[in-house]
Amino acid sequence: MSLMQIPRRVDYGLRAIIYLSTQDPEKCCSITEIAKQQNVPKKFLEKIIQDLMRRGLIRSKRGSCGGYSLARSANEISFYDVIEALEGSITVNACMDEEFSCDQLPRCTMVGVWSEIQRKVTEVFTRTTLADLRRTPCRDIVSASSLSSAA
Amino acid sequence: MSLMQIPRRVDYGLRAIIYLSTQDPEKCCSITEIAKQQNVPKKFLEKIIQDLMRRGLIRSKRGSCGGYSLARSANEISFYDVIEALEGSITVNACMDEEFSCDQLPRCTMVGVWSEIQRKVTEVFTRTTLADLRRTPCRDIVSASSLSSAA
DNA sequence: TAGTTATCCCACTAAATTAGTCTGATTTAA
DNA sequence: TTAAATCAGACTAATTTAGTGGGATAACTA
């Protein structure tokens, strides 16, 4: 009963990297710290952060007093970077995927709609960086629950 | 490896109702006919169409020579109507849902991004009707596979 | 009124995805 | 050398999605 929802993995990953963006860039934050602060299962977060590491968004320091910090500055990391690192590309409908492409093409009339959606979503995610969030903590919080009824 | 994808249910439902919109409004199309034409599992489609019925988007005629037709004209049925009938409201992140609302509010900095996405997606879906599809069979088919790499 | 073709209804199974855990090795500061 | 951390990968559990099966009901036709 809720469509097009991003997986929890992505939510957790974003929370974590946003948390890091609010800390001193030199400071290393441990999994334990991030998990506690952001209220996320520790071992699950560990795996998520590994994916962000492999994509070069986060860097780590091992051993005692180790932890994680951003690999580049907050205005150089977009939502899209994080989402794509964790889940791959955005594909509104399976037929938009190169590999599977729609069995109804070229007859399928929906593809224009899917591509329009995909373009808009991708635009917002690539435009929004972690730095933007620091400037505007709560863009328009009121509209959150009233959106479904909006035209 | 594909984010924010609409479920197959919705794709099937849209295909079916779009198919109906291309037929004579007086004609009744059977499940068998629609399933065959649109290449969708018959029994599965049956259930999907029932949901569209309950929401008043489609009407049926029982018995021999029975079948389905649109309950109102094609320009009065939007993508949003169909999607919402099948899956409920669009909720990009769980925290956007009224019932569950984010445990991090008002601190959560992401809610503005989610609401922006949700607003844009909802706008396209409510604006697009079945009649629009008939006019423009393939809006911009070329961009379908090149989108993921677009900025 | 019998037979055929269809919708209607609900329970059920199977497959796939998502979420989360467990175990243990490796690295490093104190 | 010990404690605190990352790193790696297999594993399990829960949830969601996709799809089936069987049978009642309705309407048209002969």
Report on this structure:
- The structure is a homodimer of 151-residue chains.
- The first copy, chain A, is mainly alpha-helical and 151 residues long.
- Chain A has one domain: Winged helix-like DNA-binding domain superfamily/Winged helix DNA-binding domain (Arc Repressor Mutant, subunit A), CATH 1.10.10.10.
- Helix content of chain A is 44%, strand content 5%.
- Chain A is built from six helices and two strands.
- A two-stranded antiparallel sheet of chain A has the order 1-2.
- Chain A is elongated.
- The C terminus of chain A is likely disordered.
- The structure holds a DNA duplex (30 and 30 nucleotides).
What is the strand and helix layout of this fold?
2 copies of one chain form a homodimer.
Chain A: H1 8-21, H2 31-38, H3 42-54, E1 58-61, E2 67-70, H4 79-87, H5 111-127, H6 130-135
Antiparallel strand pairs in A: 1-2
Helix pairs in contact in A: 1-2, 1-3, 1-4, 2-3
Chain A binds a DNA duplex (30 and 30 nucleotides) through helix 3.
Compact overview of the structure:
Chain A is mainly alpha-helical. Chain A is 44% helix and 5% strand. Chain A has a single domain (8-137), classed as Winged helix-like DNA-binding domain superfamily/Winged helix DNA-binding domain (Arc Repressor Mutant, subunit A, Orthogonal Bundle).
Spell out the key features of this protein.
151 residues; DNA-binding; two-stranded antiparallel sheet; homodimer; 6 helices; disordered C terminus
